[in-house]
């Protein structure tokens, strides 16, 4: 059975909440007076409009389903996982201002190894490239000279090897001396070494130039990544110092935070960290502190701390400012409170909610919650949950989608 079929097989059970609630006495009256149903329904409809006029024309349709039933197959496909609500205190953290930076080991600068002029450009800012992709072609006059010298050395080395073979044949007939053969072999080795050295020089300049274009040098991407910058146009003269562009693999990045002297003794390499960026104030990026600098900035009196981050959904951009919250190893001196993982909390409308696993197989119930402080992926819950209840910490989006789908289906039905 496909995942889509599993989803279509979901059963949404609407709890009795709000203005759509009907008690058991009303159900009995409906059974006893079935023939009076049309007039009763009309009367009830009129009463509801008067009683709940503040809801506007939607009325009961604004109520959300509170309970969702999922089949075991859907639970598996959606990778739904739960964790118990626990009591505890939040970790103490230190706030480090800073910005996102590329990992130097995953970055490269594009430049020509020799002076020349740009003939072709094949890259743009923001483009994704693979290692070996052609980025630019540069006309390098020096390249032609080196290729000519290599060709000459190879030809001389070949002639020298042929001369060695000829002299050895003469030596067998006692028509030349052994010294002449030794000297010829030395010349052949020297010329072969010269040709090899020129080949290595060509390789350093960029081997693989198309045949028939001895002056053209092809520049290729040294790694997989994204083009961050470009300073190259056709016809532009370039030198070995000129940077034509930069490329970086942004699947993993760094957050470089600034640590003040008074906090330096409270940090440890390997401590857990969360980064909040100005661009994404409601999203936290988890990582770990992997390096603390050894040199104090004499002006700002700070040390650089490096936090390694996974760039999920390509949200992290080089230069984004934010704050890293790094654990110190201690806990806040306050009364214990209920705690849940941050991943368990989502928002529907303007309300924070979590999904609680019920005793019945495949049943989950939505709870409105009031949140307190948070730290390192953990959030305080002030109301709406009880200790030990199993809350969904993975697969929350699936349950949220089912709740919203149930509301849409109800409105469409009415």
Walkthrough of the structure:
- This protein is α+β, with helices and mostly antiparallel strands and 414 residues long.
- The strands form six sheets. The protein has a six-stranded antiparallel β-barrel with strand order 5-14-17-16-15-18.
- It has four domains: 3-17 and 63-88 and 336-413, conserved putative lor/sdh protein from methanococcus maripaludis s2 fold, CATH 2.40.420; 91-103 and 251-331, Elongation Factor Tu (Ef-tu), domain 3 (Beta Barrel); 105-136 and 221-248, RNA polymerase II/Efflux pump adaptor protein, barrel-sandwich hybrid domain (OB fold (Dihydrolipoamide Acetyltransferase, E2P), Beta Barrel), CATH 2.40.50.100; 141-214, Helix Hairpins, CATH 1.10.287.
- It has helices spanning 3-8, 24-32, 37-51, 72-77, 141-172, 178-206, 396-413, and strands spanning 11-13, 67-69, 81-84, 86-88, 91-102, 107-111, 116-121, 128-129, 134-139, 216-220, 225-230, 237-238, 243-248, 252-260, 272-277, 280-292, 302-310, 321-331, 337-341, 346-348, 351-357, 363-368, 370-375, 378-383, 390-394.
- The two termini are 31 Å apart.
- The longest helix is centred in the middle third of the chain and has 32 residues, at 141-172.
- α5 (141-172) runs antiparallel to α6.
- Residues 150-201 form a coiled coil.
- Pfam families: Beta-barrel_RND_2, BSH_CzcB, CzcB_C.
- The strand order across the widest sheet is 5-14-17-16-15-18
Radius of gyration from the CA trace?
Answer: 36 Å
Number of strands: 25
Helix content: 25-40%
Determine the N-to-C terminus distance: 31 Å
Number of contiguous helices: 7
CATH topological fold name of the largest domain: conserved putative lor/sdh protein from methanococcus maripaludis s2 fold
Overall 3D shape: elongated
Mean pLDDT: 79
Class of secondary structure makeup: alpha+beta
Strand content of the residues, in percent? 35-45%
Q: Judging by the overall fold, what is the CATH architecture of the largest domain? A: Beta Barrel
Domain CzcB-like barrel-sandwich hybrid: 107-249
Domain CusB-like beta-barrel: 253-327
Organism: Polyangium fumosum
Coiled coil: 150-201
């Amino acid at each position: 059975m496909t995942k889509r079929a599993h989803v279509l097989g979901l059963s949404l059970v609407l709890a009795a909440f709000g203005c759509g609630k009907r008690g058991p006495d009303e159900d009995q009256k409906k059974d006893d007076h079935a023939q009076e149903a049309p007039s009763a329904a009309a009367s009830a409809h009129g009463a509801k409009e008067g009683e709940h006029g503040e809801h506007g024309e939607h009325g009961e349709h604004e109520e959300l389903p509170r309970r969702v039933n999922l089949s075991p197959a859907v639970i598996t496909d959606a990778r739904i996982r739960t964790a118990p609500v626990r009591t505890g205190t939040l970790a103490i953290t230190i706030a480090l201002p800073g910005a996102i930076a590329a990992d130097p080991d995953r970055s490269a600068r594009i430049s020509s190894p020799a002076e020349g002029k740009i003939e072709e450009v094949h890259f743009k800012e923001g483009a994704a490239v693979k290692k070996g992709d052609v980025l630019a072609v540069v006309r390098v006059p020096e390249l032609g000279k080196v290729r000519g010298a290599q060709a000459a050395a190879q030809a001389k080395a070949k002639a020298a090897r042929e001369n060695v073979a000829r002299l050895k044949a003469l030596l067998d007939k006692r028509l030349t001396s052994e010294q002449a053969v030794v000297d010829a072999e030395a010349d052949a080795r020297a010329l072969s070494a010269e040709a090899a050295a020129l080949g290595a020089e060509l390789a350093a300049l960029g081997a693989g130039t198309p045949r028939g274009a001895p002056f053209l040098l092809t520049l290729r991407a040294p790694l997989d990544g994204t083009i961050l910058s470009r300073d190259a146009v056709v016809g532009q003269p370039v030198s070995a110092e000129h940077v034509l562009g930069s490329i970086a693999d942004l699947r993993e990045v760094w957050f470089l935070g600034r640590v003040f002297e008074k906090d330096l003794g409270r940090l440890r390499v390997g401590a857990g960290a969360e980064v909040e960026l100005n661009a994404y104030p409601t999203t936290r990026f988890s990582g770990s502190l992997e390096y603390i600098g050894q040199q104090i900035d004499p002006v700002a009196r700070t040390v650089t701390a490096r936090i390694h981050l996974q760039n999920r959904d390509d949200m992290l951009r080089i230069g984004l400012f934010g704050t890293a919250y790094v654990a110190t190893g201690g806990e806040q001196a306050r009364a214990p409170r209920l705690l849940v993982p941050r991943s368990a909390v989502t928002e529907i409308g303007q309300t924070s909610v979590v999904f609680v696993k019920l005793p019945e197989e495949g049943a989950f119930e939505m709870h409105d919650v009031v949140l307190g402080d948070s730290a390192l992926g953990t959030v305080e819950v002030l109301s709406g949950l009880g200790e030990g209840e199993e809350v969904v910490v993975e697969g929350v989006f699936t349950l949220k989608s089912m709740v919203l789908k149930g509301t849409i289906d109800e409105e469409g039905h009415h």
